[in-house]
Design a protein that fits this description.
Proton glutamate symport protein, 0% strand
Amino acid sequence: MIVIDANGTDPGGMASAAMPVKRKKRFYEVLYVQVLIAIAAGILLGHFDAKLAIDMKPLGDAFIKLIKMLIGPIIFCTVVSGIAGMQDIRKVGRIGCKALLYFEIVSTLALFIGLAVANVVRPGDGFNVNPATLDGGAVSEYVGKAQHLSAKDFFMNIIPTTVADAFTKGDVLQVLLISLLFGFALAAMGPRAKPATDMIDTASHTIFGAIRFLMYFAPIGAFGAMAFTVGKYGVTSLAPLLKLIGTFYLTSILFVFIVLGVIARIAGFRIGRFLVYIKEEIFLVFGTSSSDTALPTLMSKLEKLGCSKSLVGLIVPTGYTFNTDGTNIYMTMAALFVAQATNIELSFLQQMAILSVAMLTSKGASGVQGAAFIALVSTLAVVPTIPVAGMALILGIDRFMSEARALVNMIGNGVATVVMARWEGELSEEQLETLR
């Protein structure tokens, strides 16, 4: 029996023993605060000791590789268990069609916005660069990779050579294809598939447990990545191209709060509250310049919100290829910047050609190292009047712009998942209260 005295306390401590009270974390124990401190420390080290900061690169690379190592198994377990447990298999096809339509509309809008802003602000004016003086060798590596991009190669690459090959390469679309096949196969088996689905569910919990453990190293990864970026390229390297960086960052912010904000309001939630909900993922992506590092925890948070496993497993990985809003804004804006900096005036038809090709190349380079830069090089090839060597102008600051690209990509896919879940009737009014 628990005795409570007149002051409302438990002198014997029996109540607290029976019902342990979870201690509130101190501010320095919160993950996003630790990541913020690590980012600041990385910037300071990069500024004051560039040589040492560059040596910190393995810390960031190692953390990103550790997270990427588990992305394939997470997608497989989430999608397979989600589809195998669904009553209505047709729902997967319906969600997939809706998602692809949504992705195409929003990502095309992002391309238009990048094009429009570059025409209005004209960030490249005043550079007056002579294309003949540019060093094309600096971007030759990306030109070589861009030449291999084609629609046929993109679709053929979705099919892995073997099942194991998809996981060893870490190709998200290949893993997704295998997951869908296994999920449908288990769903067709009915009750006989229960031992397999139980095993996959257990594996899923184990993998997410490993991810939670790896998150303790997130501040170290963010520190290493940010220290290397600032140490390698230097904050002073931003000055000559500050107008382009500022224009891109401001456009990205406005895209999130206006375009994605309007979409969120139509679906019944506020973009500001959603950003607060995924704040850890935002700081993690900003610190590492990679949206991949936030994919596992983003999927977990969306499930906790009320989105079904099958929907999260389908929308988020697919969106990482087909819904790259930040990359799309960057591509059209950077293409026009190079033209303006080299005093090349593009006609309306030439700009539309860039936009049309960018709709394909922004997806075709997904999963390739330096994907946004490669896709941009490939896009510029359709307008021979723009010198590909002009890409050397922005090669040095591309790393600083990658943070905004990755952030908008990640936020856009999170919003898309909640919107789809809302349209499918998976989120109730009570669940959406978290985001209002």
